Here is the input.
Amino acid sequence: MKVLLFGGTTEGKATSNWLDDLEISHFYSTKTSSGNYESRFGQRICGAMNVEEVCIFCAENEIDLLIDAAHPFAEVLHHSIADAANQADLPVIRMERDAVPRIDSKWIQYHHSLVSVLTDLQSQKYAKILSMVGVKALPVIHKIVPNSNIWYRILDFPSSLEIAQKAGVDMEKVIVSDAFEGMESIEDLLVDEGIEVMITKESGYSGLLDQKMDLAVKHQIPLYVIARPNLPNYDETISNRETLQKYLKNRFGLERKELAHGFTSGTCAAISAKAALNLLLGEDLQQKERIALPDGGICEMQLHQNRFAEDFALCSVVKNSGDDPDITDGTEIGVRLKWNDANCIRFVKGEGVGTVTLNGLGIPMGEPAVNPVPRKMIAFELKQILEEYDIDRGIDVSVFVPLGKKLGAKTFNPKLGIVDGISIIGTTGRIKPYSLEAYVQTIQKQLNLAVLNGNKHIVVNSGGRSERYLKEKFPDLGDLAFLQYGNFIGEMLQTINASGAEKVSMGIMTGKAVKLAAGNLDTHSGKVVLDHEFLMDLAKDCEYSHDMIQKIGEIKMGRELEELFSFSEDEPFFKALKSKCIDVCMSLIEDYDFELLLISNKGDIF
Here is the structure.
């Protein structure tokens, strides 16, 4: 199988990583040769291609699939890809970044083009304007509205400053920002200068659109948003490794040879930090960087970004988590370094990395959520280089994850008192497919926090739905007392031993209970199938009729048992099911009181 992948974006690099892990031969097409690219099964091709050239390339190279992972605003390219796919009779799929949801607010206005925005701004006669559209649009804006009082936020590239100077704008009104700085300095500008209107692109979370929208609503300043162009029709739209693999299996019958391993966010940060310090010390730009892992191995990664100025350096990588279902797989993780006068290595807040607000995590309150092992990894790499150069200076380390604020809300971080971002984690540096390492670490942290804050009664459950039901049953317990085990029941129960917890109430819904009762302490659907024979034997022991036992043999999901039996503690089948679950759990429990609560899909509990 051969794939033609149109990239030049973080999404493009991530897709290439996934194709590598699947051992699929592919071409990675970008307009220019800028940016690093290296792949085991991919080959880079540079230069713009029109529809005819795409068709010829596909025919000559026997391409089976087109993937469009180009920038959302590359409108001409999107339609060229779709037209070529149609003419060559090839399937085409879109790798799409997460879009910031549109909100209904009088302070947010969407326009189809920059010209439309500028026309409206002129008609409204705004005196003070802040442009956050990007440097490529700067000359256009300055030409159309040359006499307006406009501040321009541009990224800290020498080429960007050159464009601004050539356009003839007042350089005192050019705000040079790092790509991964938050909006704090912009908020100060809004207040200090009395900005009346802002303009930006619908660039997504990586462009901090959500933060710009928040500022507009908070300060009641209109925000004009240039909307994403309409995309053509695709055979499928994917957003992650899992959806890509599912498509390839359904469309091409592609089966995995073996599961791919990956690397932790701590490893990504350590590699980025090492590369950034070399840049800060004047070394040449490198395509790749390598570090030693805590388990004794070596990891080498391709650098995604590498930039430097007089007083800072910045490098990043695109994370490859392998086949582990990791929320940060395919995201950019990087480090920005700057010298400090404290003569030590300090970790300071970076975009998308959470802030610790509770004690008990092994990280000082108020500091970024970079866990102890990643901190040691980063510090070790930096100290090695400083010693080599015989330099005695301090460094501020700012780890950033552009999508981190959005992703952090989907993790356990809010329960751990980590706000506004993800955590940089990892103990070995590697990620094994479907390993328990990260999950068990999270369980341990939550448990430590709960007990440290006086919670002797812990309530464990499989997820958000069952937790809602259990919070109604235990209204006097605080949020920290509720922990989620997901599928890892055995690991949760063993972790609680010797934790200081005195009582554990475990909630479990019928679908997982039938797996647990059969002796499965890991209830993941990929590992455990519904055991009809076990359930039919259970019903026989309860002396149900032959017809009822046969009906059990026909169900497809455990929750269908609630349609066959009355869900109550007096119903023999559910009574026996609960007893079996307790027997399995008690084999792991050492020093705390335990009760099991069976939960129906309607929220009934006994």
User: Anything to note?
Assistant: The radius of gyration is 28 Å. The chain has a mean pLDDT of 91. DSSP finds 21 helices and 27 strands in the chain. The first strand starts at residue 2 and ends at 6.
